[in-house]
Design goal:
By secondary structure, the chain is mostly helical. It is built from 16 helices and 5 strands. A hairpin with a 4-residue loop joins strand 4 and strand 5.
C-alpha cells in the first residue's frame, strides 16, 4: 500500500491534535479511505483522489438530461454499474464528461479526497454549494481534512474514534457493507501501524496523577463532572462512568477553553469548568466584595 508523504502525515497529525483526536486514529481513517495517497497529478496539477458514482449521477442529474447521461455510459440506476477506471486521470475525465451534462449533479456524484466524502452531502455539511465542497477538497491536504472532519463531526463519529470502536465507526462511515470490505479490520491494522495503542482503561487510570479523572474511572466524582459538563452546555447522562461520551464532552470543553485537549480532568480543567458554570462570575464578585470589606474594616481599626 502506498504511504503518505512525511509532509502529509505531519499535517494530519497537527490537524488531529487541534481537534482533540488521536493522530494515529485520523491517520488510519485517511489511509484506509485513500489507500495512502493524498493526490494524483492531473494535467500538471495536484488533485485529490476521486471516485465517480454513476448511480448517484442517475438520481441527481436533471430529468431532461438523464437519458443522455445513460447513453453516454455515465449514469445507471444500479450501484456499481458504471465502473471506475483504475487511473485517477481517467476518473477525472469521467467527471469532466458528466459535468458537461450537469455540473452540480456531477460534483455531487463524486467522493472526494483522503476522506472520500460524497459531494452529495454538501448542504448537510454546511457548504454553500456542491462547487464549494469540491473547492475545499481541491485546496490541499488541509482542505481534504476539513471536509473529512466535517463529515465525522456532523455524524457524531468522534466518540467512536476515541473508543477505537472500529466496527461502529466503519458501519456509520462506510455503510452496512463495511464487514464485507473488512473496513473495521483494516482500520484497526492501520491504527496499530501508525503507533496507536489500545490502552487498558484500568492501566491508564493507574498511570495518571492522583486525583485526575479519565477514561475507565467510575464513581461520584465522575457523576459530579458529568453534571457540571451538562450545566456548562455539554449534555451527558450522569451515570458515574467515564466512557467515550464523557471523554468527548470533556475534550470539546477543553478545546473551547484553550486547554490541553487530553480528556483528563485535572486541576486546570476543574478550575475552568467551575468558572464556566452559570453564576460563577457573581460568586467570584461576592468573594472579592467580602475581602474588600475586611480590608476596609482593618484600615478603620488602625
Amino acid at each position: 500500500m502506498p504511504v503518505f508523504s512525511e509532509e502529509t502525515l505531519t499535517i494530519i497529525e497537527q490537524t488531529a491534535r487541534a481537534h482533540g483526536i488521536e493522530p494515529a486514529a485520523l491517520k488510519a481513517v485517511a489511509e484506509v479511505e485513500s489507500g495512502g495517497r493524498a493526490f494524483a497529478m492531473i494535467g500538471g496539477r495536484r488533485e485529490p483522489l476521486i471516485r465517480f458514482e454513476g448511480h448517484y449521477f442517475d438520481r441527481l442529474v436533471a430529468d431532461e438530461r438523464r437519458a443522455e447521461a445513460r447513453r453516454a455510459g455515465l449514469a445507471s440506476p444500479r450501484a456499481g454499474a458504471i465502473a471506475n477506471p483504475r487511473r485517477q486521470a481517467d476518473r477525472w475525465r469521467l467527471l469532466e464528461r458528466a459535468a458537461k451534462i450537469d455540473r452540480d449533479a456531477a460534483l455531487q456524484s463524486v467522493s472526494w479526497g483522503i476522506g472520500q466524502v460524497m459531494g452529495a452531502h454538501w448542504k448537510r455539511l454546511g457548504y454553500a454549494s456542491p462547487e464549494a465542497l469540491a473547492r475545499e477538497a481541491r485546496s490541499g491536504v488541509e482542505g481534504q481534512l476539513r471536509l473529512m472532519l466535517r463529515f465525522i463531526g456532523v455524524n457524531r463519529l468522534t466518540p467512536l474514534l476515541h473508543a477505537r470502536d472500529w466496527a461502529g465507526f466503519a458501519r456509520r462511515y462506510n455503510g452496512p457493507a463495511y464487514a464485507k470490505n473488512r473496513y473495521d479490520v483494516r482500520l484497526a491494522a492501520a491504527h496499530a501501524r501508525h503507533g496507536g495503542v489500545r490502552a487498558s482503561p484500568v492501566r491508564a487510570a493507574r498511570s495518571r496523577a492522583p486525583g485526575v479523572l479519565g477514561r475507565g474511572d467510575r464513581g461520584d466524582r465522575v457523576r459530579d463532572l458529568q453534571r457540571m459538563l451538562t450545566t456548562a452546555g455539554y449534555p451527558l447522562r450522569a451515570d458515574g462512568a467515564f466512557g467515550p461520551r464523557t471523554d468527548a464532552a470533556l475534550r470539546a470543553f477543553q478545546r473551547r477553553h484553550g486547554l490541553v485537549v487530553d480528556g483528563l480532568y485535572g486541576p486546570k480543567s476543574a478550575a475552568a469548568l467551575r468558572g464556566a458554570l452559570p453564576g460563577a462570575g457573581r460568586a467570584r464578585g461576592g468573594v472579592l466584595a467580602f475581602l474588600w470589606r475586611l480590608v476596609r474594616m482593618a484600615l478603620r481599626g488602625r
